[in-house]
Design brief:
Elements: H1 11-32, E1 77-86, H2 90-97, E2 104-107, H3 114-123, E3 127-134, H4 154-166, E4 173-178, H5 186-198, E5 202-205, H6 214-221, E6 225-227, E7 230-231, H7 238-255, E8 257-263, H8 268-274, H9 276-281, E9 284-286
Parallel strand pairs: 1-2, 1-8, 1-9, 2-3, 3-4, 4-5, 5-6, 7-8
């Protein structure tokens, strides 16, 4: 009796083939229709550091004005410092300008550099005076150009003062050079102050004599005037000048104001410059002379 061979089932192989064909067909179909193949995958982007957002601007802070020369602040005393006898050398006025404070330059008339010194001082913002030579008691002292003597008549005095002012352009006032004899003479001072008034200027009495009548006559004539408080350099030595400057500061603090006279060609400009911090520390402000005349 012969054995019958069993036949292998065909279905599994055919089914696998069918599935493979369907897979290829489905892949081809989705390749042709990408929108239906699923949501697009966004690339991963690292977030950049977030920039600081600008804050809304608030109201502007008020700006405090810086003190300016000639504008004293509360609690400050004021001093005017005048440098006499300028006009002989240009270097003198440059040293005065370098102080950097509103000091005053008194220029002698008729010297080689009188006009140029006056112009340079004015260009630097400094006040200029005509330093008017007036006769002293000591007849051995030379007045120099443009001097006023007590034997001159009124017309000659006034003509000389006008000519002297022409040689010192931009002068805002007049002060006397020497003058211990002339400033004690009411007639002489009335003639001088008549020109000061007609030009709208002021007068500073250097007080070279306790007998000066410049102040009372200025009041009679109607001229604004002031008087010197301290001489800084009767002794032209640094320590002596420093001592006088300390005296000036003390007087200014006690009285509120003070007026000092030094000389352009002595050590005084550089000593004053070296003591600017002391003035500031003591709350004593330099001001133009014109702010202290009445």
């Amino acid at each position: 009796m012969s054995r019958r061979r069993r036949s292998r089932p065909v279905l599994p192989g055919a089914l696998l083939a069918l599935i493979a064909v369907l897979g290829v067909a489905v892949g081809w179909w989705f390749a042709q229709h990408p929108r239906l193949s699923g949501p697009p995958v966004s690339p991963v982007v690292k977030p950049s550091p977030r920039a600081a957002r600008p804050q809304p601007a608030g109201p502007p802070r008020p700006v405090q004005p810086r003190p300016q020369p000639g504008e004293p602040q509360a609690g400050e005393a004021r001093v005017a410092v005048i440098f006499d006898d300028a006009g002989g050398r240009l270097a003198d006025v440059e040293e005065i300008i370098a102080i950097g404070r509103p000091v005053t330059v008194a220029v002698l008339p008729g010297l080689a550099h009188s006009a140029e010194v006056a112009r340079r001082a004015r260009a630097a913002g400094l006040e200029v005076l005509l330093h008017l030579p007036v006769e002293p008691n000591d007849s051995t002292q030379a007045l120099g150009p443009g001097g006023i003597t007590v034997d001159m008549d009124d017309a000659a005095i006034q003509a000389t003062v006008r000519a002297d002012l022409a040689s010192v352009p931009g002068a805002v006032g007049v002060n006397n050079h020497m003058g211990s004899k002339g400033t004690a003479d009411r007639r002489v001072m009335r003639a001088i102050l008549g020109v000061v008034k007609e030009r709208g200027l002021f007068f500073l009495d250097s007080v070279t004599t306790p007998k000066s009548v410049a102040g009372p006559v200025a009041t009679e004539v109607g001229v604004r005037a002031a008087a010197r408080t301290v001489f800084l350099d009767n002794v032209d030595e640094e320590e002596a000048i420093r001592g006088q400057i300390q005296h000036l500061i003390a007087l200014a603090r006690a009285r509120g104001t003070a007026i000092a006279i030094g000389h352009a060609q002595r050590l005084t400009p550089r000593v004053v410059a070296s003591m600017r911090d002391e003035f500031d520390r003591q709350r004593v402000m330099f001001v133009p002379l014109s702010t202290l005349v009445h």
